[in-house]
Amino acid sequence: MSRWLQSFSRSLCTGLLMAGVGAGSAMAGDGAAPRVVGETPGFSELIDDDAAIEKLYDGGKWSEGPLALPDGSVIWSDIKNNRVMIWREGEDVQEWLRPAQFHNGHALDHKGRVLAASHGKRAVERLNEDGRWEVLVDLDGEHKLNSPNDLVVDARGRIWFTDPTFGIDVPEEGYGGRSVTGGEYVYRFDPDSGELTRLTTPAVKTPNGLAFSPGERTLYIADSELGHDREDASLNHHIVAYDVDDDGALSNERMFVEVSPGVPDGLKVDEAGNVWSSSDSGLQVFSPEGQRLGRVDLPERTANLAFAEHEGQHYLFVTATSSLYRVPLNIGEARSERN
């Protein structure tokens, strides 16, 4: 991690509509303690049945976009309070950035610089070595983006991001506005060339979280269309998978899984290819074939997650409504290198 970044980083309700999660699942807000629920043999190889799940912070309004930094700290967005928080082991949680232009998702580029999906700027921006935020992309042609939501960096350094309208539709999550791109899309941006590519993903109506399989041969995209109107059960709440070729083109669109209760939001993939998805009841874990392996039930609606490793121990940091949780794992994150 570069010195400049080290220095800067120091400075039930609606979910009840969707009943398909299975017997015994905790619902968001029911007050139950976090718990691990294995649904298939071998789930304990990913996470211990009695894993010590810690709540590290509970003072947020809508927690999103966690990112583990190389120094062991974790930043995440408190979107509706327009700030980014930082957690460090053994220290009090502090504000890392305020105002934060209603950041949502975060990622690191290949130089260790923080990238942010900014609702407020309707852009993807980057924290440069001089401590200033630079807008990398905010236009699709001549049209302003909606409100970039989540992003991931591939092995070639290209930034893949989703652009639903939540940040301009929800008054507390941005500065408002109207959609002018003609829809909600997934994009690939090359920061070296400045080229922006709108990807063709017809099965995805409201793209949200996204993640690559090991080797980047599959891209998973969460469709959170139900988030626009949680009383309309006909809206999408599924994850769609695509094959990815060497040039980044997508093909073989297919339904991966439907997620209930609520919607899939943030996604991550572990080194064995299992997909970890947020939901209204906590985390749900699916094999590469789409079989649900188990759950991590949490007492709050869960938004996003980030892998981390410290002193040989793997973790997930999970943002859920007002809180940040740490979940010890027995497996790490998928590697980004293409095979």
From TrEMBL:
<protein>
    <submittedName>
        <fullName>Gluconolactonase</fullName>
    </submittedName>
</protein>
<dbReference type="Pfam" id="PF08450">
    <property type="entry name" value="SGL"/>
</dbReference>
<dbReference type="InterPro" id="IPR013658">
    <property type="entry name" value="SGL"/>
</dbReference>
<feature type="domain" description="SMP-30/Gluconolactonase/LRE-like region">
    <location>
        <begin position="62"/>
        <end position="321"/>
    </location>
</feature>
<feature type="signal peptide">
    <location>
        <begin position="1"/>
        <end position="28"/>
    </location>
</feature>
<dbReference type="InterPro" id="IPR051262">
    <property type="entry name" value="SMP-30/CGR1_Lactonase"/>
</dbReference>
<keyword id="KW-0732">Signal</keyword>
<keyword id="KW-0378">Hydrolase</keyword>
<dbReference type="InterPro" id="IPR011042">
    <property type="entry name" value="6-blade_b-propeller_TolB-like"/>
</dbReference>
